[in-house]
Every structure is written in C-alpha cells, then in structure tokens.
Amino acid sequence: MKNEVMEERVQEDERKRMEIIHKTKRSSVDDRYNPVSGGGAHRMSQLRESFIREMTRLAITHKAINLSQGFPDFDPPREVIEAAHQALDAGGNQYTITWGVPALRQAIAAKMNKWYNLAFDPDEHITVTCGVTEAILATMMSNVNPGDEVIIIEPFHEGYLPAVIFAGGTPRFVPLDSPGYTLDLDKLRAAFNERTRIILINTPHNPTGHVFTRNELEGIAKLCIEFNVIAVTDEIYEHILYDDHRHLPIAAIPGMADRTVTISGFGKTFALTGWRLGYACALNPLSLGIRTVHDFTTICAPAPLQAACTAALNLPDAYYEQLRSDYAARRTVIMSILSKAGLVAEPPEGSYYVMADFSQWDFDGDDHSFARWLPAHLGVAVVPGSVFYGTKGMGKKTVRFAFAKKMETLIAAGERLCGEAG
Ligand SMILES: Cc1ncc(COP(=O)(O)O)c(C=O)c1O
C-alpha cells in the first residue's frame, strides 16, 4: 500500500476511534479503560485498545522512527526463514496436533532441560500457543475465578491486565522500586491474602529491563508456597541479557515446579514477532487446563511456522552469544543517545527496552502528550510510561524506548532527538 493511502487510513482509523471514545465516555470509569461501554460486555468498560500498538499507528502517520512497539526491524535468522519455506512446500499446511507438533515440543523440552535443568514431558507438559499472549490468557482462563486476585508487578506489559479481566479476576498491583526497579518483598507480602490465586512475573522485564535476582525470586516463591499461589512467569526475553546477568526461571526454585507455569516465545529471541509462536510449560494439572483453553480458542499455532521454530531451537549456542553481543552494542548506543538528549534512564539489565524520564526537557505536559508530540515534532515514536502502570499517577514523566533496531535506525533516531549523530 502506498504511504499516503496508508497514512489516510491510519488517520481515518484514529478519527473514528476518538469519536467512539467521546461518545462512550463515562465519568465513573478510569479514562484509560473507558472507550467501549454501552451494549457490550461489562468487562469491556475496564479495557481499551493497546496504547503500544496505537503508538505504532501514530509512527506511521508521522513517518516517525518507531521506537514504540517492541519488534525488531531486522530479519529472523536465514536458516529459520528457509525452514518455513521448506515446511510450506512439504505440505505441512493443515491443523497440527493441538498442543503443537511433536518435534517442536521435544525441542522445547530439550531446551528447558539444557538451559535450566527443568524436566518437562513434551507429551504432557508443553503447549505451543499463538504467542506468549495466548499462553498467558489460557493460564488465566483455566485458573482464575471471579473474586480471585492476581498480583501484577508494576510497571507491566499491557497484555496482562486484559488477560486477568477476561478471566474475571481482580488485579492487585505491587510496584518495583526505584532506583534499580527492585522488588520490595515486604510490599509484596502485604499484597498476598487468601483470595490471591496467581502472581504474574516477567523476567527479564519489560519495560524496565530489570532481571529478577535469586533473592527476589526466592522471596516470591516463599510467599507462593505459604499462600498456595500459582506463579505465572513470562520469560520471553530470557536470552536478551546484559553484562553478567543470568536468567533464573522461578520454576527451578525448590517447591515451585508444580505450582509454576513457565511461558516463553520465539518472537523476541528469533526476531519473528509476527509469527505468533509461544509456549507454556507446566506440570499437571496446570498443563491440562491450559491445553483445554488453547484447544477451544486457537486450536493450534500456525503449522509451517512451528516447523520453522523447531529449526530455530536447533541453532547452535553461538546464535545466543551473537544475540547478546548485538544487543549489548544496541544498548550502548541507545543509552548514549538518551544521555545526550537529556533523557534520564537506568541501563536495562535485560530485554530491549529502556524507560526514560523527560523531566529535564522544557515540555509542559504528561507522558501521553509527550508521546504524541515527539513523533509529530521530532519524528521518533515512543510509548507513554503510565500505560505500564495500574496505579493512577505513576509513570507520568517517563516514556519507553524499544531498541531492537538496526544500528542505523538507532543512529537516525539519535540525530532526531539530539540534532547530531547519537
Ligand atoms: C513481556 C512481554 N510479554 C509478552 C509479549 C507478547 O508476546 P507475544 O508476541 O509472543 O504474544 C511481549 C511483547 O512485547 C512482552 O514484552
């Protein structure tokens, strides 16, 4: 589609969305979750479309460099693309076994064993899903009853709250503290009670880059065991780590194996977010519940892409070493750009995001107005910080930068933000 046509469509789309928001505004509901009400399901009054993906549309409108949504602007490994082509040609184009093709489940089991010493039976404990998003939703749908509380550590990825709400649960937010975005275990303890059903953890963390320490994970585990709570862990950035940070799945902590759902995906590690491939690893009965929801929501993940992701898991260790060193170089560049631009940020320990404070800029407005102003005036798109919080008023002076980009993209963004090469 030509750029101008695309732009017109995006603008029209945005105009219509704003019209709906205005028509349905109800003062009793928090603005962020307000746009759809009226005749729809009650749960919709607590939800709105993704801000992150809205920022991508805004980037297209303004032809801005898109550092908002977390996807790479480079290709997956060549071997993986070729494996997808081969799978298409080889006739693997029909439904697969609903839990995923056996070779992929076996490769996931082998990977969990090799990297983390975790034992999962591919026949029973692994479910291949349409992305991490589906795996989280299936876990919530199969474990949460109305009135159950789900602890979400904030800031958090935008997809978590809808998953809890779809399942009829009540979110309970516990903050990461600055500096360092660390978890205060006393604050966490205060959030646990007899209604707590699940705690949702994400390490390495989006949007802060925090990698949960052994001490933090052991603290969470202790509470899960004491209160009989399930840990659901989103480890989608498990291979994107900086310096000497190491990834530790909470399932590996003693006492946690049978009360943890370990979720990860292929999108970030192999730069194929549009393929929609993820997986959930859990012992029974947790696995059974996830499989049942998955069975009746998406049936199976895309068949030829499952074959290609099997090839991805067979890449040598050198792939992961290169991944880390490439991301380390990108992190150095983005941190230098932010510092030159007067945007204050702590370097991430993992993942490919950085939260930056724009208080030093002569800008009279909050994170939302800043994130709308930036692509329009400087040609760089970001995400408003407050969309990652459930507690009102948080993140109002921050925006999130995603730096899974080619070096030239980051340097071009640096020129726009600083007026010189980043
Ligand atoms: C922490 C986290 N979880 C889940 C997702 C979505 O994963 P998927 O695309 O596999 O559904 C993202 C995407 O940015 C993410 O950052």
What would you say this structure looks like, in words?
The chain is α/β, with parallel strands linked by helices and 422 residues long. It has two domains: 50-75 and 319-418, Aspartate Aminotransferase, domain 1 (Alpha-Beta Complex), CATH 3.90.1150; 78-313, Type I PLP-dependent aspartate aminotransferase-like (Major domain) (Aspartate Aminotransferase, domain 2). It contains 13 helices and 14 strands. It has helices at 3-24, 51-62, 78-89, 102-116, 131-141, 160-166, 185-191, 214-227, 286-297, 303-313, 317-341, 367-377, 407-418; strands at 65-66, 126-129, 149-154, 170-177, 182-183, 196-202, 230-234, 260-265, 278-281, 344-345, 353-357, 380-381, 383-384, 398-402. The strands form three sheets. An eight-stranded mixed sheet has the order 2-9-8-7-6-3-4-5, with helices on both faces. A four-stranded antiparallel sheet has the order 10-11-14-13. A two-stranded parallel ribbon has the order 1-12. Strand 4 and strand 5 form a beta hairpin. Helix 5 (131-141) packs parallel to helix 6 (160-166) and helix 11 runs parallel beside helix 13 (407-418). The longest helix has 25 residues, at 317-341. It is globular.
